[in-house]
Design the sequence.
């Protein structure tokens, strides 16, 4: 009698387990990925057709790039820690760290300790971080002094100008980056405030995008007084480089207003292209990186506007990002729920008067 009862109980348990397995399999067949978890606009991606962005071990040929000084180590560690926790620990993309001097052993040890990804450390060649032969260094020093007296931000900084010129014309040519096709720019003391549950690099690749951003703002006019004249001169001399249906309306109005795009995910081969190389060389010969204070952000944004269509540029609304003093924070509650965000939507920079994001959507 006891044996029969035990057998009956055992059989009942087996039937229950099989029943639960069948129910589970049926549920799996009907599960559809909630589009909200992708944080992507519907016109860009159908999650049911692009699950490789979420559940595939495939990786784009890409790297995370940081131009950073040894003295910025602890600010960079903060950035890497959040970047890893929010995204890269799931994807393990390599890091490329660049500096105009050798990195210290402490820098290498502490940065590599925060990630399982490969880390590469490179010194910038002198020709990429020095004055070209046609620059009058006495005049350049006088210009820095004048801008400093007017309290122009970084107006008196020599190293800042070398940095802007390097980011504008050389970073994509550094030997450590030559093997890669895409990059994500990482800076010290920035924050990533929502989980990113897909691969932005694969997203760029699958949708044939060349540039992605989160924050756009007006550039300081006092730093680029003749930049727009230089751009108009380039357009006249190289009309064959200008792309049809470009997005110049986003970048300029009648007085040559330009915009600063902070945060970059991009296609390295775009910067290596003939149109961009000719564009940079044209600007470089005019000396504005040293006689004024032309930044890499307006140079990049103008180039994208000249040589790309809007369909090739993406606003990453889902990536919550803070770069002092500006913050992009998604305003949709779904993003905060799924992404476990810790930013305040009320502090979102997008709709401030000097934000250019509204103009981007109106273009």
Sequence:
């Amino acid at each position: 009698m006891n044996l029969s009862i035990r057998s009956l109980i055992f059989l009942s348990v087996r039937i229950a387990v099989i029943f639960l397995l069948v129910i589970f399999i049926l549920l799996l067949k009907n599960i559809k990925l909630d589009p909200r978890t992708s944080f992507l606009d519907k016109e860009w991606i159908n999650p049911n057709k692009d699950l490789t962005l979420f559940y595939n071990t495939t990786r784009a040929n890409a790297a995370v790039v940081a131009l950073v000084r040894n003295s910025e180590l602890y600010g960079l560690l903060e950035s890497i820690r959040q970047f890893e926790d929010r995204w890269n620990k799931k994807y393990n993309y390599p890091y490329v760290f660049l500096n105009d001097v050798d990195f210290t052993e402490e820098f290498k040890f502490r940065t590599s300790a925060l990630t399982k990804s490969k880390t590469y450390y490179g010194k910038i060649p002198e020709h990429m971080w020095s004055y070209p032969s046609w620059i009058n260094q006495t005049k350049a020093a006088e210009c820095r002094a004048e801008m400093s007296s007017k309290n122009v931000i970084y107006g008196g900084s020599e190293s800042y100008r070398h940095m802007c010129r390097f980011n504008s014309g050389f970073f994509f040519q550094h030997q450590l980056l030559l093997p890669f096709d895409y990059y994500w720019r990482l800076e010290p003391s920035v924050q990533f405030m929502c989980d990113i549950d897909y691969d932005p690099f694969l997203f760029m690749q699958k949708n044939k995008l060349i540039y992605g951003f989160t924050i756009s703002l007006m550039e300081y006019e006092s730093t680029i007084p003749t930049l727009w004249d230089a751009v108009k001169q380039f357009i006249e001399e190289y009309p064959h480089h200008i792309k049809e249906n470009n997005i110049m309306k986003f970048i300029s109005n009648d007085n040559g207003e330009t915009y600063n795009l902070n945060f970059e995910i991009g296609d390295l081969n775009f910067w290596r292209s003939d149109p961009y190389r000719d564009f940079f060389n044209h600007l470089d010969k005019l000396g504005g990186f040293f006689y004024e204070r032309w930044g890499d952000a307006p140079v990049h944004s103008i180039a994208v506007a000249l040589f790309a269509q809007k369909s090739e540029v993406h606003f990453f609304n889902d990536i919550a990002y803070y770069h002092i003093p500006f913050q992009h924070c998604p305003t949709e509650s779904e993003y905060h729920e799924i992404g476990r965000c810790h930013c305040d939507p009320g502090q979102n920079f997008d709709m401030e008067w000097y934000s250019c994001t509204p103009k981007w959507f109106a273009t």
The domain at 52-362 is CATH 3.90.550.10 (Spore Coat Polysaccharide Biosynthesis Protein SpsA; Chain A). Residues 182 and 267 are 5 Å apart (CA to CA). The longest strand covers residues 62-67. DSSP finds 15 helices and twelve strands in the chain.
